[in-house]
Amino acid sequence: MRRMLWFRRDLRIENNPLLSLEGEVLPIFIFDTNILEKLSANDRRIGFIFNALIRLKTALQERGLDLAIFYGKPIDVFTLLLKQESFHEVCASGDYDSYARKRDRDVSLLLPFNYLNDTYIFKPDEVLKNNGTPYLVFTPFYNRAKTLFRPEHMAESLPAKQTRIDFDCSVIHSIDRNKHTILPITLEAIGFFPQPLSEHQTLSPEEKLARFEHKLENYQRDRDFMALNATSLLGIDLRFGTISIRALLRWLMVQKQKGVDTEPFFRQLIFREFYAMLLYHFPHLEWKNFRYPFRGIENHEFYEAFCTGNTGIPIIDAGIRQLLESGEMHNRVRMICASFFTKNLLLPWQWGERFFAEHLMDYDAASNILSWQWCAGTGIDPQPYFRIFNPYIQSAKFDKNGLYTKTYLPEVRDIPTKFLSDEKSLINYPIQGYSHPIVNHKSSSTRALDYFKSELSKC
């Protein structure tokens, strides 16, 4: 068999099913211009991917293989390759958002496409109700997933004997329809520029796991507290496949055998599966409400204040500043910000989802879209529009000492911590150099509920 091994969300050699297929192979990676043309030249994720590719390329060379890197539209790349070489199939791990599925269908018309289930624990049609329909509620999905979970879901992909198909891997091949240009293997050659990474963004998955091992026992208790840094920090590694989900499951099994309660973290991994399954079965969720007709109210002044971290609500502004500064945001803060955006500001959830998509290092379409729909009250929950988080209460509960907020919001570092979660004080005693709150929580919450009820009455 002569195969193209298309690396995408699996930028590693360890536990990679692509490398378990015996025969002649050409490993490839495509910088997809359909995606890149929408991104800023300073997008941190492209730098992260580029660094991962260099490590992958070196590791493949140590195995007698190499990685051919392309820049262009996938259909153009495959058209060119098939003119130069003959292949029996292309192999790649499944990716399930609407663009990825269309892209893969187009490529499959050119040559057989061998899908490998590597990105997620389960196949998208594996955890279904008895009648074959998808679950719409997480808990039943979770319970079903646990009954279906088998040792095979943790199986290790062992390397096979592979020989390299001769191809020039010393350059980036830029393909624009029939035009083929040679570029040096640099980030700048494809129009992007290196950006600084945070300390833990430079850590390997193995180093992150070593640190997380000491936090796992208290994960359920500590994970919502922003300043504790109690999460795994593996989101970006799962997103781009610098760690195998199956290797992570085997690691969890070892921790469980040591007597550690791994269920809370495993539950979060199944949430990732749940959202991926929903987006697969309901692709219109990317842009369209699932259940309710709420569209939000366009207000560009509110949107600008939110996106620059100048709402006057400390926990919100700290979260946005963290996002803009590092491409990261604590998960609890993501939820608080999304609730504030869609409920207190009544902005369209699609605007917020798109803003997060532009900046989150670990952006995953399914998880981000479904989370925004959940916060907006438009998703799969039966009556979620009543849910409005109070950012001041959330701040007092999960950032009690103000450590997280003051880290990312220098304007408030010298004021008493109690002011950070006291709306009346922030309104009545403005902080010099800091924005005045753009909305009052109680009145904006009442306005939101009135709006939702009004929209429902039109149905």
Protein model, in words:
With 459 residues, the protein is an alpha/beta fold. The protein folds into three domains: 2-118 and 160-185, Rossmann fold; 125-156 and 205-241 and 243-281, Serine Threonine Protein Phosphatase 5, Tetratricopeptide repeat (Alpha Horseshoe); 300-457, DNA Cyclobutane Dipyrimidine Photolyase, subunit A, domain 3 (Orthogonal Bundle), CATH 1.10.579.10. Helix content is 44%, strand content 9%. Strands 1, 2, 3, 4, 5, 6, 7 and 8 form an eight-stranded mixed sheet that branches. Helix 10 (263-281) packs across helix 15, helix 12 (314-326) crosses helix 13 (331-344) and helix 13 packs across helix 15 (365-376). The longest helix is centred in the first third of the chain and has 19 residues, at 44-62. The protein is globular, with a radius of gyration of 23 Å.
Characterize the biggest β-sheet.
Answer: 8 strands, mixed
Going by CATH, the homologous superfamily of the largest domain would be DNA Cyclobutane Dipyrimidine Photolyase, subunit A, domain 3
CATH topology value of the largest domain? DNA Cyclobutane Dipyrimidine Photolyase, subunit A, domain 3
The percent of residues in helical segments reads: 40-55%
- Spans of 5+ residues with little confidence (pLDDT < 50)? none
The H-and-E topology, N to C, reads as EEHHEHEHEHEEEHHHHHHHHHHHHHH
Per DSSP, the total helix count is: 19
Number of strands: 8
Shape assignment: globular
**End-to-end C-alpha gap:** 57 Å
Radius of gyration: 23 Å
SS content category: alpha/beta
Q: What's the number of domains?
A: 3
